[in-house]
Amino acid sequence: MNPGITIFGAPVGLYTGKVRCYLRKQSIPYVEALPGDPRFQKIVLPAIGRFQNPVLMTDDGEIVQDTADIIDWCETRGLGRISVYPETPLQKIAALTLDLFGGEGLVRAAMHYRWSFRSYQEQFIAHEFGLSMRAFGASDADMAARIGPMMDYFNGHLPALGVTAEAIPAIEESYEALAECLNVHFRHHPYLLGGRPTCADFGFIASLWAHLGRDPYPADMMKRRWTSLYRWVERMNANDPDTPEFPHYPHALTGDDKLPETLRAIFAHIASDFLPEISMAVDVINEWLAAHPDAQEGQLAASSPDGRGFKGREFMLRDRPVLGHVNGYKICMLQRVTDVYAAMDDASRSVCRSFYDSVGLGQLLEMRTTRRVKRENHREVWGPRTSPSAL
Ligand SMILES: N[C@@H](CCC(=O)N[C@@H](CS)C(=O)NCC(=O)O)C(=O)O
């Protein structure tokens, strides 16, 4: 029975789009509500302890924050049509790797294309940022006074996300190269792993919908240059498979635990453009852990006073230094990949290893922080101490 699901989020929200596409594709009934909703302010915010979207709330008051947790919550209750986690080893680890990259590796480009082209799309972004206020009765004068500063606040995050004048050419080159690979892939396949969506597609749609596929500047660019990618963005928002241009393609993953050949270039892109960043994040956290051997289980996995993460560090993106963002959440998503790899039998591990080595991503399979990060009470916290041999 459907537990009566409300999703608090916004049309303009990057991660809300991920959950919305998942619920639609799985035909799970839900209603969406904006963060200005009194229930979000009075019930959800105190429960999760910080402003964060999206959040799922059931009619009987259960609250789940975080897109991966929301998807898993639906999956474990069998609410969907078919699991979005493949069952065979290579497809499973590939889907989780794409989910990690899609959710974490495209945010810099998403923020750049939303906020660096304000004159092109100011009216649209202002309208979208005003939705929640307008829905709850703000006057025109109130909205005019508040939207500008709100947009400036989000725009102000760009330097901390590594979007600087020096880095922008690398960010654009990287995004354009990926979009080319995705466009080639979606010319031949409806979804990343074949004929139906997996967690890989939901990770990618986060940035590729609300920002890159919907804001006027990047959406125009996508429609003009990467039309098959744009079709996938549309397809991800449909509640059916939406594959009329693939009349003979079964609504199933590629058989025999194979990956579509066109995914190879996307994995190679992850190796060149994301591996250095996630590797830097693991180093930063391991250095912090070495300097804080007394960190307690359950303590926030963060060093910054606001509990959001760790001081970032530069990594090289296409020969340019770019400031990378470091937080415990990336490690949670990385652990999903490395846990699956660690639990494989020797034969499966060798198949996966040889594919990952062939695209330059072998190192990711055994990349670890010296303490695990887990999610507890809607936050990322340190897991139990483990002996080095158990890591
Ligand atoms: N890991 C979270 C990330 C959620 C997230 O960062 N949401 C953004 C909106 S798209 C947010 O709430 N940002 C406000 C903030 O962090 O202050 C998830 O997957 O749900």
Write up what this structure looks like.
- There is one protein chain.
- With 391 residues, the chain is an alpha+beta fold.
- It contains 15 helices and eight strands.
- The chain folds into four domains: 72 residues, Glutaredoxin (3-Layer(aba) Sandwich); 115 residues, Glutathione S-transferase Yfyf (Class Pi), Chain A, domain 2 (Up-down Bundle); 41 residues, no CATH class; 118 residues, no CATH class.
- Helices cover 52% and strands 8% of the residues.
- The strands form three sheets. The chain has a four-stranded mixed β-sheet, sandwiched between helices.
- It is globular and about 65 Å long.
- The structure holds glutathione.
- Glutathione binds next to helix 1 and helix 3.
Keywords:
52% helix, 391 residues, Glutathione S-transferase Yfyf (Class Pi), Chain A, domain 2, Glutaredoxin, 15 helices, binds glutathione, four-stranded mixed beta sheet, alpha+beta, 8% strand
Strand content: 5-15%
Task: Work out the helix count.
Answer: 15
Question: What string, H for helix and E for strand, traces the elements in order?
Answer: EHEHEEHHHHHHHHHHHEEHHEE
Average the pLDDT over all residues and give the rounded result: 95
Radius of gyration: 21 Å
Q: In a few lines, what is going on in this structure?
A:
This protein has four domains: 5-76, Glutaredoxin (3-Layer(aba) Sandwich), CATH 3.40.30.10; 89-110 and 165-257, Up-down Bundle (Glutathione S-transferase Yfyf (Class Pi), Chain A, domain 2), CATH 1.20.1050; 117-157, no CATH class; 273-390, no CATH class. It is built from 15 helices and eight strands.
